[in-house]
Structure formats: C-alpha cells, structure tokens
Amino acid sequence: MAAPPEPATNPSTFLTSKVQPIRFLDAGDSAVVVEFGDGIDAAINARVLALDARLQSATLAGVVETVPTYRSLMVQVDPFAFDRAGFEAWVIAVLPALADATIAAKRWRVPVVYGGAFGIDLDDVAARHSLTPAQVIERHAAAVYRVYMIGFMPGFTYLGGLDPTIATPRRLDPRTKTPAGSVSIGGIQALVAGQEMPSGWHLLGRTPAITFMARRNPPVLFAPGDEITFEPIGADKWPALEAAARAGEPIAEVVRA
Amino acid sequence: MTQLIVERCGPGTTLQDGGRFGWQRFGLGPAGAMDRTAMARANLLVGNAPETGAIEFALAGGRFRVEGGSVRVALAGAAADLKIDGRPIPPLWSGTADEGAKIDIGAARDGLFMYLAIAGGLDVPADLGAVATHMRAGIGGIAGRNLRSGDRLPCRSTNPAGSDQELGPAHSLGATDGPVRVMLGPQDDYFSAAGLATFLGEPYTVSPQADRMGFRLTGPKIEHGPKGYNIVSDGIATGSIQVPGMGEPLILLADRQTTGGYPKIATVITADLGRLAQMRPGTTLRFKAVTRAEAVAVLAAERAELEAFRAHLRPQSGTIGLTSERLLSLNLIDGWTNGRS
Fold this sequence. Notes:
The complex is a heterodimer. By secondary structure, chain A is an alpha+beta fold. Chain A is built from five helices and 14 strands. Chain A has helices at residues 42-57, 84-98, 122-128, 133-142, 238-246, and strands at 23-26, 31-35, 63-68, 72-77, 107-114, 145-150, 157-160, 175-178, 182-186, 189-192, 197-199, 202-206, 227-232, 253-256. In chain A, the strands form three sheets. In chain A, strands 5-12-9-10-7-6-13 form a seven-stranded mixed barrel. In chain A, strands 1-2-4-3 form a four-stranded antiparallel beta sheet, with helices on one face. In chain A, strands 8-11 form a two-stranded antiparallel ribbon. In chain A, strand 3 and strand 4 (72-77) form a beta hairpin. In chain A, helix 1 (42-57) packs across helix 2 (84-98) and helix 3 (122-128) packs across helix 4 (133-142). Chain A starts with 22 loop residues before the first strand and ends with a strand. Chain B is an alpha+beta fold. Chain B folds into two domains: 3-166, no CATH class; 180-293, Cyclophilin-like (Cyclophilin, Beta Barrel). Chain B has an eight-stranded mixed beta sheet with strand order 21-14-15-18-17-20-13-22. A six-stranded antiparallel beta sheet of chain B has the order 7-6-9-4-1-11, with no helix packed on it. Chains A and B meet through strand 2, strand 3 and strand 4 of A and strand 13, strand 15, strand 16, strand 19 and strand 20 of B.
C-alpha cells in the first residue's frame, strides 16, 4: 500500500473551534480517546498535554501508553486490565486542574538552512505574500513554536505558533518525495519532518538535526509540549552539522530545560 | 552457537514479535506480527512464550541452512509446507533440524502470513524494547529491514532439549469464519445513517493494495455526514478503519502511521486482526458491530483457546498418521479462514 500523501489535515476548516465538553470515544478494545475538541487550538492542545502529563505520572491499571495529538489523547490499554468507567471518573476528577496546569517543557533551538536547494518553496511563499524571502525567514524564525503533536511517522513534529501572515494553503499537487529534516508550513501549521516522505506542504528549509534515531541515546529529541525556535544558518555549515548528526550528535540545542 | 543462514526468502520476510509499545507518542507505531495468534501457535509448538520473536513470511517462503548446532522449528499461519532436508513436517508439528540441514518453507497456498518459530528464540538485539521490524521506520529486526539471502540469525539455544511436539487430536482450532467484528468509532458521527448502514450491511473486498501497513477495501461507497471527511489529525489504533473522501474503507494494521486526518468509522476488534490479516486480495468480507464487552469476551476466548492449544501439545508419537479426519479437525490448515458470513 502506498503511503498516504498527507501528514495531517487541512487546517483552514478548523480555525474557529473552541474548547468543548470532553468526549470519551472507543478506538477498539485496546484504545480509548479523550477528545477535548475538533480544532487546532492552543487552549485545546494545552489540555491534551496536561492530561497526558497527569496520566504519565499516575499509574492507572491497564494503561499501556498515551498518544497526545492536537485535540485529543489516545490511551492504549490492555483490555483485560483496563476499567473504562473508572478511567472516565478519574479523568473527570482531574479535569478542573487541567485548565491551569503549566506544562513542564524544554525549549529547543533548531538550526535551519533556509531557501535554495534546502527550501525550494521559500521564494514562492514569499511571492504569494508579497514579501521578500528574507522577510519570510525572519517571520518563520521569530516565532516560538509549541510541539502540538508528534505523529504520523517517527519524529514528525507538528508545531503551533506560525506567524499567520505567512500561513499558506497546502500545494494542490503534493510532491511524492521530500527530504528528512524538511522544515515546512501547511496552512497555519509548521512541521519538522522526521524522515523522507510525500508532502503537499511548502518547504522553507531543512535542519540537519535528526528528530528520531533509534540507536541514539536518547532516540528522540522533542517531546509533545516542548517549545521550538529556529535559527537560520548558512548552507556552508550543513556538511559538518549533517555529519555530526549522523554520528549521533543532537545538533538541536536545549536553551531552556 | 547455532545460526540460521538465510539462503533465500521473499521480500516480505521480517522478524516480528508482539510489537513495540511506548513510542507512539513520538510517531513510531508498534509493528509486530500481523497474525499474532498464528505466531503464538508456532511459538507454543517449540516451547516458547507466545510473543517470542519469530520469522514472518508474506506469501513467499524461504530456505535456511543450519550451522553450529541443531535447531527446533515450527510453522503456523497461512497454509504452507515445512520441510527439513526434504522431509515434510506436518501442520502443527515441530521439527528438529541438525547442523547442515536445510529448512524449506513453501509459498502460502492460502492466506498471507506464515510464522517460523525457533525454540529458545533468536539472539537478535531488541531495538527500543522489541525485535519487531518496522520497515518504513527502519527499526527492529536486522538493521530495520527485511531478511535477505546471506543474513545470519543467531539462535539463543544451541541444541534444543526435549522432544518434538504435535498437537493432540482432542484440540480443535475452532471456527474461523464469520464477519469481521468491529467496535464503532471514534468518528462514526462523521457518517450518515445511510453510510453506517452501508458499512455494516454490504460486502467489501480486499484490494491488491494490502500490506503490513494496511488493507484497502473496495465496495459500496460509505456516505459521510455533514461534517465532511477531514478531521484534525488524531490517534490511530491497530485496526482503525479510515474512510477517506472517496468512501471506501482502509484498515490500518501493524505498520500503520500513529495519527491521521481521515474519520475512522470503526476499529477491528483485537481478536479478529489476525484473521483479517490472512485475507488475500479478492477475499470478500462483511463487518459486524459489537460492544466493548463482547470484544473483550472474544479476546478472552481466544486466549483460552491458546491455553488449550498449549495443554494439548504432546510428544510426537513417531508416525505421521494424518488422516483426512484429522486434517478436517484442524480446519485443514492452521489459522487460514475467509471472512464470508
């Protein structure tokens, strides 16, 4: 089966959503979804991440792992050990505390080579917004992003916080291949790609940092809830940084633990 | 140290186990055996724990050479021949291959996935806690890839203790046909009443686009509701049934992505995933909705069947003596079924 062409959804439809009453949804006998809303929204995502953090520190019977996404938390369970009614009661009890919870998160600085062969859509995005490429870089690199979700395939890091003045609807003709490390935008979302994949997003640049590397310690760099900033670097720095990353260096730097 | 040397195998040959959990929050799905019941039976036949890493074959078989000692093996899953130096090993028997012997696994005659279990397991380092190969992520197995001729697979046990086993005649593998059971949701509210009725009432056919990542089905178009057919990406479970805009279902399986942006009408229950995985392109199936309690009860029954399977294993009597009655009691083959109701 061919890989689906898109890593996430068209966000333009979902801009108006708000925090809604939570819903508990079945995802088969081995997973339950706690849904906080149906849109891309900082407040919704903050609740997802806060519940995730509570569940990580709690030891509820039958909980195998959790999968935070933009607007819901999927909980993988052992169907024989999991008490769904008890779980719902537990979530509802901790719910009031979630709204004010602060997320303990790292802040990362991620080097990016923008434009040229590293970001083939930079000029086009700039032209669409009547900006210069340098202005697009400046606006993209000025933001502090939140990791809303890591998903699809290993290390695909979906970010909230894109400057809306450079938000750009996705391409009508997705590319069948985009390189690992691509730093791209699609609608109001921003992304760091974990590996080579088909994509309809606009490629602004590329980072030598490898977001997921099974045999590195630790295998992952970013976690859901972390903050990310991008640092423009010259293309001349790419070869050395790429070699270091392949040798297991994180390259991305923690600027706030 | 006993090693299995791959002399040849098909491109869908990988090392698998019960799957790798704990990494979905970072985008890495669990992988693991497509038919866990079949893998468990192969493992039980050689005295292993049910989820010990085994060799999964997709359609094509393979040939292995034994070096450095002897090894006990068993094959389960799709119907396929197992031979040791040309000597046929009957279904649901284990066999012992001595140093220098050739182990041959034939192509699947029916079904898709076979499992070769090795007594004591393979001495392959776990990647992030599991042996399961996730080829798209390049993780697990041998360097994150499928097996190739020339690969050397070290075995944990140099010479197997005890004797070869067979499944006693008192044990029946039970009925394996019937509809594919699902639990509705998490996005069944993205479908019209007519769409839900189509999904639960009409037959669907496994398309040629079927692999470890998922099975695309063809059949009557499932109508979405007024909310459309895009959602903000959320988590995907093994067995999630996505229905993209074109209205035909896509069932996501072991090597699935962890999140996705199409509404998921239902999820195949865990107990039916292995049976589904054995359905070849062209197989027609129907879906049936069950409750969580029913799904868990079916899973408990499946576990009890595996326990009974283990309990009915016995040392081989020395003669093959397979009667047609015996073959029928085994459903002819282990694990294969169709999904017609």
